[in-house]
Amino acid sequence: MSLWTHTEAEAATGGSATAPFAVTGLSIDTRSLRPGDLFVALKAARDGHDFVAQAFAAGAAAALVDHVPEGVTGPCLVVPEVLAALTALGAAGRARAKGKVIAVTGSVGKTSTKEMLREMFDAFGSVHAAEASFNNHWGVPITLARLPAEADFAVIEIGMNHPGEIAPLARLARPHVAMVTTIAPAHLEAFDSLAGIAREKADIFLGLEPGGTGVYNADLETSPILAAAAGEGALSFGLRGTVTLTAIRQTAVATVAEADIDGGHYLLRLADAGPHFALNGLGCLAVARALDLDLALAAQALGRWRPPAGRGKREVLLLDPASDARATLIDDAFNANPASLAAALDVLAATQPGPGGRRIAILGDMLELGPDEIALHRAIADHPAIARTDLVHTVGRRMEALWQALPQSKRGKHVAQADDLGAKAHHLVHPGDVVLVKGSKGSYVSRVVDALRHLGHPLPEEPTGE
After folding, report:
1. What Pfam families does the database record attribute to this sequence (predicted)?
2. 236 is in an annotated binding site
3. Of 113, 138, 183, 192, which Cα lies nearest the Cα of 369?
4. pLDDT tens digits, 99-156
5. What is the mean pLDDT of residues 270-277?
6. Residue 111 annotated in ligand binding
7. Which of 51, 136, 42, 145 minimizes the C-alpha distance to 94?
8. What is the pLDDT at residue 186?
9. Whole-number Å distance between alpha carbons of 212 and 103
10. pLDDT (tens digit, 9 = 90+) per residue, 147-199?
């Protein structure tokens, strides 16, 4: 079944097709393009028009362009401006959608919560959700343009770096339910306060469909800002929320949360996840409540979610097969700000090392924190979980402030670049250790994760039985 025909795409964008076409998908990158895709020739660091011929060679069914590149003979949809046409195609995709649309934003946990919602909705019907972290002025239109008209649910992630970005994307998505996961110090280079971040995130509620529902975290200093923006009929989650957290405990393999909703008691078990994920899970239950879904089934479905690589995923490193020497890696290297780092350190502190093992943190710079960035890094030394952490290795000039503030006994290695630590990976981990790796994407601490993984040996398949 086609996603867009040339006549539908012409009507949506006002463009003109050089030949009839029908596409089954949409791509902005020839490296991930699939046969049948519409290739969108966006202009960024490179001009996508330079890759149109390559896209057709890879199987593209058509290309969205502002001019037909020399030598290209495949069907092209010619428009005045490609990004504007992509946005119009996204708006048309949203307009024809028959299912419920849910939008998610927040300083921390957007992508993980989006994936939780994908898992939850899968128990109730067909789900379309944003790919990876497609949450900006390109990603949201792409997600909507890819939205199958017959999908029962669509989950749209919305992010921002600067003021004024959330509202137009929310109005484009037109969600039936909009959720704010949390407000934390992130992107402080562009905002003067947490209140400013909260007001920007709360703009997601401006896009709600008539009768739509806002969902927000009730336990924040900035919750009153979110509540006022969400308006009448909003739902909240947390210790003081409509979806009320009544108990939480962490085991060696899972976090278990208990919640009360409208007098009913529900159990949420998240395997391989820390307590901070449980709060996002409660937010998902609030979304289910807003859509009148079976809450017990929703909680059960959320239990099938696992943190992806780079976002708190736990894995076992088999260091020596002969002696069965193992270590535990907590890969949280995709992003970081003070709130998410504090939560990750709490997870490390609550994780029991093996015999003779240590709790080790490998921390890279937190970026985009504004003029107080050095003080915010130094303040991590005062977090209670540091007392239960045996050794802290740091990467980057900002994290050096934390390293200097640590007691001498907890100071590991400090290096300027992640590769300098990755080269020493074989000295960083001993049998029984639990190792957390956390940092902003731009700190490249994910390279340390890769180096640690290379120390391990593949674990044998567990017998599944009959």
Report:
1. Mur_ligase, Mur_ligase_C, Mur_ligase_M
2. no
3. 192
4. 999 999 998 888 889 999 999 999 999 999 988 778 999 999 999 999 999 999 999 9
5. 80
6. yes
7. 145
8. 67
9. 11
10. 999 999 999 999 988 899 999 999 999 999 999 999 987 656 667 788 999 99
The DSSP result for 161-224, as a single string, is SSTTSHHHHHHHH--SEEEE----S-STTT-SSHHHHHHHHHGGGGGPPTT-EEEEETTSTTHH
Alpha carbon 46 to its chain centroid, in Å, reads 26
Let me know: does 392 contact 359? Beta carbons within 8 Å: no
- The closest of 395, 44, 62 to 52, measured between CA atoms, is 62
Determine the distance from the C-alpha atom of residue 122 to the mean position of all C-alpha atoms in its chain, rounded to a whole number: 18
Mean pLDDT, all residues of the chain: 92
Q: What single letter denotes the amino acid at residue 363?
A: L
Order of strands, sheet of 391-395, starting from the edge strand that comes earlier in the sequence: 313-320, 325-332, 434-438, 359-364, 391-395, 411-415
CA 410, CA 274: separation in Å to the nearest integer?
A: 23
Rounded Cα–Cα distance for residues 355 and 344 (Å): 22
Return the structure tokens found at 37.
């895709």
Backbone angles phi, psi at 268, to 5 degrees: -120, 120
Query: Is 108 flagged in the annotation as binding?
Result: yes
Q: Which residue has the tokens 């923006």?
A: 229
Whole-number Å distance between alpha carbons of 439 and 323? 32
State mean pLDDT over 11-16: 98
Tokens of 381: 């030394």
Q: What are the CA-CA distances from residue 410 to residues 253, 344, 362, 363 (Å)?
A: 26, 17, 12, 13
pLDDT, tens digit (0-9, with 9 covering 90-100), for 226-258 = 999 999 999 999 999 999 999 998 776 788 999
Work out the pLDDT band at 307, boundaries 50, 70, 90: confident
Please say whether the beta carbons of 223 and 215 come within 8 A.
Answer: no
207 is annotated as contributing to ligand binding: no
- Please report the domains of the chain, with CATH numbers, ordered by start residue: 4-80 (3.40.1390.10), 97-302 (3.40.1190.10), 313-455 (3.90.190.20)
Q: Which carries the bigger pLDDT value, residue 275 or residue 458?
A: 275
251 marked as part of a ligand binding site: no
